[in-house]
Amino acid sequence: xxxxxxxxxxxxxxxxxxxxxxxxxxxxxxxxxxxxxxxxxxxxxxxxxxxxxxxxxxxxxxxxxxxxxxxxxxxxxxxxxxxxxxxxxxxxxxxxxxxxxxxxxxxxxxxxxxxxxxxxxxxxxxxxxxxxxxxxxxxxxxxxxxxxxxxxxxxxxxxxxxxxxxxxxxxxxxxxxxxxxxxxxxxxxxxxxxxxxxxxxxxxxxxxxxxxxxxxxxxxxxxxxxxxxxxxxxxxxxxxxxxxxxxxxxxxxxxxxxxxxxxxxxxxxxxxxxxxxxxxxxxxxxxxxxxxxxxxxxxxxxxxxxxxxxxxxxxxxxxxxxxxxxxxxxxxxxxxxxxxxxxxxxxxxxxxxxxxxxxxxxxxxxxxxxxxxxxxxxxxxxxxxxxxxxxxxxxxxxxxxxxxxxxxxxxxxxxxxxxxxxxxxxxxxxxxxxxxxxxxxxxxxxxxxxxxxxxxxxxxxxxxxxxxxxxxxxxxxxxxxxxxxxxxxxxxxxxxxxxxxxxxxxxxxxx
Length: 511
Description:
Elements: E1 5-11, E2 16-22, E3 25-32, E4 43-52, E5 57-61, E6 68-71, H1 110-113, E7 119-126, E8 135-137, E9 141-143, E10 147-150, E11 157-158, H2 165-177, E12 185-188, H3 197-220, E13 225-228, H4 233-241, E14 246-251, H5 254-267, E15 275-277, H6 284-287, H7 291-295, E16 301-303, E17 309-314, E18 319-324, H8 334-356, E19 360-365, H9 372-386, E20 393-398, E21 403-408, H10 415-419, H11 435-451, E22 456-462, H12 464-471, H13 475-485, E23 488-493, E24 502-509
Parallel strand pairs: 1-14, 11-12, 14-15, 18-19, 22-23
Antiparallel strand pairs: 1-2, 2-3, 4-5, 4-7, 4-13, 5-6, 7-8, 9-10, 10-12, 16-17, 17-18, 19-21, 20-21, 22-24
Helix pairs in contact: 4-5, 8-9, 11-12, 11-13
């Protein structure tokens, strides 16, 4: 029996949250706030402000304060195997017989392709991170329900993730019948599997309306300006994640309910969708058992069904994931125990990548397996679990010591960066100095303060836990320092102080 798939949408004035569940278990989670600019997927008419041959890129003013950057590879003809749509699940590498042949890919110099003050249409493919501006492309794509429209590329193709030869042949025949434009191409997404010509024709009409509006807006607008903004998170998730086997969509906002009803009628007219309005006094996410699951998203330790666990450790350069047997001891031998935990971990790691929206380099340290067939099967399980991810993932290597290296595409700010900030207490280190360490530091600072000011009285203002340590276990050390310097040391507790903070005040001559 297939899992029961549901989409829950909770919207208020502060934020919109979207949760996708399978059999009541959280599978994907998204957050968007009114202050967030919906950049990825949005299309701008921008102006080239500078061209930098040294990095093969141009900086483009799109009206957001920080210039976006456009690599030369994002301007010239894409490589034959390059993914085409925003979710990186469709490929323009496969073309129908009636589409024009692609120009061969060559290394172009950025100064040959664009000039300063040139205006051009660009699409945001990656949000700004840190000091980097948004990454842009001129290969503009408009995703629909079953297809993606490529605005500047007339080639047609089918998603690489559709592997069945017969289905690909059937879809290719439908694709060749569709008529759109000599200047734009169509890519069939994985959601198009099993769909007929009627559904694809409807999707083409939907995309055509957006495309024509985009062209009109761009023609009459002066750069820099946004000519097409990506949908809000609720509409975006419905467009990209809603499938016919979705049991229901539940919304707790009347305004959002009306908006989604109109959106569904426009996106998939004639398709019956169970769209429910949550009207209970109990909050939607609490009633659906989602609140605790959402709170646990960023826990460092994740338990596995068998009793094993994985530990997720984000670092500056990568995310390290460690797999442990933990409380699970198995019933037969170490190899079988490790294999069972590793299989569970592979599936859970793929889920955690989606939930946390982890991007960049990921290293997974599985439990060592001695049997080669076990290692091969583990790779298959991991690849199958990763194939469900709409973000582009690439399993780079899997070593004999069961260490997997993979990359995952990062397009938007993760839920963690939206919902959390670096701890002002530890400044993102994840650790603070121990009470003993700070007691020793306080005594050192007192000694420095009294070195050239003997016969003085000083006050040590410290965190309460440090004060207890100084007045109890370290009292002999303070008394020895007082006797040595003929001074008086007064320890004062201040709850407002950081654990690592010590304030020393010289109060005057000791009588």
